[in-house]
Amino acid sequence: MEPGQLIRVEWRGKPVWVVKRTEQTLDALAAHNDKLRDPASDEPQQPDYAHNEHRSIKPEIFVAVGICTHLGCSPSYLPDSFGEQVQGVTSGFFCPCHGSKFDMAGRVFQGVPAPLNLVIPPYQYLSDTTILVGADGKEA
Q1: For the purposes of burial, counting CB atoms within 10 Å of the CB of 32, is it exposed (0-12), middle (13-18) or buried (19 or more)?
Q2: Under CATH, which number does the domain 6-133 receive?
Q3: So which residues are the catalytic ones?
Q4: CB count in 10 Å sphere of residue 46
Q5: Which one, of 124, 122, 121, lies nearest residue 138 by Cα?
Q6: Cβ(63)–Cβ(120) under 8 Å?
């Protein structure tokens, strides 16, 4: 995957996103914690092994169910124009149905209809380049 690239796959009839986050994206995650509804991901929307600041096994690879936690729409990935939605945040996900906004760790911003962070599905690495969604695990 190229830096910033998003790949969509399907798991249990749902869209799953795999995004290769850039170093700049990772560095920026902590800068907007004050704007998030659940910055520490205290709600159980992710497996234990993804309960960290990146909400992932490997920091650079983000895996999430691409369904808004408000009413089930699929947000749009805005890799370079998210600043129009949240000032000072370059990349993120925007749900055009009702205006919910999520950062590059799938954490929901305050003041939007979505009540929870995006769901992180169970997944594991079979190799450095292959992810299996639906099975709990860690790195290969």
Answers
A1: middle
A2: 2.102.10.10
A3: 98
A4: 22
A5: 124
A6: yes
Main-chain phi, psi angles of 125, to 5 degrees: -90, 125
Structure-block tokens of residue 48 = 């234990």
In DSSP notation, the chain reads --TT-EEEEEETTEEEEEEE--HHHHHHGGGGGGGBSSTT--SS-S-GGG-STTSSSSTTEEEEE---TTTS--PEEETTTGGGTSTT--SEEE-TTT--EE-TT-PBBTTSS--SPPPPPPEEEEETTEEEETS-----
The 10s digit of each residue's pLDDT in 79-89 is 989 988 999 99
Burial of residue 30, with CB atoms counted within 10 A of its CB: 0-12 exposed, 13-18 middle, 19 or more buried: exposed
Token code pair at residue 79? 């890799």
Q: Model confidence over 117-126: pLDDT tens digits? A: 999 999 999 9
Question: Residue 35 corresponds to which tokens in the numbers above?
Answer: 């704007």
Which residue has tokens 């790195």? 139
Give me the pLDDT at residue 140, please. 47
